[in-house]
Amino acid sequence: MIGICIPAHDEEELIAACLESVARASLHPDLGGEDVKVVVVLDSCSDAIAQQWPFVTLHVSARNVGRARAAGARHLLQHQARWLAFTDADTRVAPDWLAVQLSLGADVVCGTVGVDSWQAHGLDAQAARLRFESSYQDRDGHRHVHGANLGLSAHCYQQAGGFDAMECGEDQALVDRLAALGAQIAWSALPRVLTSGRPFSRVEHGFAGAIRLAT
After folding, report:
1. From its phi and psi, is residue 42 left (phi > 0), alpha (psi between -120 and 50) or beta?
2. Which of 60, 89, 126, 154 could anchor a disulfide with 8, C-beta 3.0 to 4.6 Å?
3. pTM
4. Is residue 1 a contact partner of residue 81, using CB atoms and an 8 Å limit?
5. Is 109 in contact with 151 (CB distance < 8 Å)?
6. Which residues sit opposite 6 in a β-bridge?
């Protein structure tokens, strides 16, 4: 079984598109009909939209993305997931997102992200986009780590001790430990996701903060 974990905190405006994309990716023919279990971890919120989908919803009161991701992963491991894929509630994954992750044959897949729109940056939109595109490596061999586009085997996740209880940077910390353990990491631009280009998000110092610095 393949598991997908999506942490969410007050993402009613964006989560429906995320869940629709995940549902589509879970049915990709290259998965060979393997079961895909989706867990939405509602952190300190009650998202009615998420609960309308045929997915598992877990409620936690952590206000901590590391704890939320860990809770979702724990549930998936308890249900015998062999592969854990992570994305965010403000992100849309490509139809072949899961299939591509698995096709790479690695222990860990670190994907890149695209920005869906720069309009929220207002008059600074063009400058923000150009600055981001000039410094971001959307190609194979990059060294970016995004919780919005991350996949790894259940064995490696457990070997590395899972996500730390961090408000930000939990994804990087996990991948750093996996690298130190000698895990085979695919730094790939093939698994595609589009994430929100908003300059402010629920997590301080997260991706929104990084692209805000581009203005």
Report:
1. beta
2. 89
3. 0.90
4. yes
5. yes
6. 40
Q: Averaged over 110-117, what is the pLDDT?
A: 89
> Is the alpha carbon torsion for 119, 91, 52, 28 positive or negative?
positive
Judge whether 102 and 3 are in contact, CB under 8 Å.
no
CB 62 within 8 A of CB 68: yes
Q: Which two tokens stand for residue 60?
A: 């936690």
Q: How far is CA 2 from CA 38, 46, 73, 74, in A?
A: 9, 25, 11, 13
181 C-beta neighbours (distance < 10 Å), count: 12
Given its phi and psi angles, is residue 205 left (phi above 0), alpha (psi -120 to 50 degrees) or beta? left
Measure the CA–CA gap between 115 and 172, rounded to whole angstroms: 20
- Residue 189 φ then ψ, to 5°: -100, 5
Tokens of 194: 């589009």
Give tens-digit pLDDT for 142-192: 999 999 999 999 999 999 999 999 989 999 999 999 999 999 999 999 999
Separation CA 42–CA 156 (nearest Å): 25
For tokens 């929104």, the residue is 208
Tokens matching residue 195 = 């994430």
Distance CA 64, CA 166 (A): 6
Tokens 């895990």: give the residue.
183
Question: Could you give the percent of the chain with pLDDT greater than 70?
Answer: 88
- Residue 212: the pLDDT is 44
